Amino acid sequence: MNGTLATAAHSDGALRLKLGINCGFAINRFPEPEVWARIVGEVLGLRYCQFVADLLNPFWDEEVIADQLARVKEATQRYGIVIETTFTSAFTRVNHLLHPDPLVRRMWFNWFKRFFKLSKELGAIGSGSHFGIMSVTDCRDPKRYTEMLREGVRLWQELTKVASDLGLKFLMFEPMSIPREMGETIAKARMLYEAVNENAAVPFLMCLDVDHGDVLSDDPRDTDPYAWLEEFGSITPVVHMKQSLQDKGGHWPFTDEYNRNGKVHPKPVIEALKRSGAREVTLTLEISHRERRPFEDRVLSDLIESVRYWRAYVRE
Question: In CATH, which superfamily holds the domain spanning 2-311?
Fold first, then answer.
């Protein structure tokens, strides 16, 4: 499993870091492929991005998908951008494979099949999402929780076979911050990882987020971003990066205003990844702004400053 990632690493075993961005920043602000691609490649000077389903949703009509797919391909090529991975995002943060209704689960299973096919057409080597989200009712019922967990594992295992047939190298899930969104502690994230990989056709990896983890956990490591990075860095091709405050209240940028009180800093991040044995990781900015002023007017300046902050430590 680790060999899948290691093939792209330096031959001397050193950690290779890349800097990228999750395209969630573009949702409803810069939906035109030509616009967000120019921002990523020209304004921010980035070469790697994680494309999101909210910019090309498999639920759309085939005519729309074909048109958008062609425009995304052309725009990313024009600005020299590589779509390494794809992911679900703000408007697709729903129950998915853990929906209480089996018909709805099957619908989302088929949605993922189409999304992975689109991902491959965009040149991605991997794709992912959160593991799934339980309803409050299912999460509070121990018997039902166990049944749904088993169902989620089975469906992800089936999806790894779909990914393998398409030629994707891996799938990944994002450990979250509350029990019903799954993987909220280091122990539970490892359990999900191991359960799916018992019968996976391609590696089922993690997409870590430095701002996730259950604040009510008894183990302080569960809200320590460096503990997560050290524990799982070697099975994490992508890390979602944003500045994290003590209240874990938002996807904050890496600006002076937030860095003063934030707990995510480049040197400890890199050192934790090195200790994990990671070989290749894309640090992927996942910064979002509320549709309120003054935040709305800061989007591009905050992204530019965040890239500048990390470029001092990550130079491809």
Answer: Divalent-metal-dependent TIM barrel enzymes (3.20.20.150)
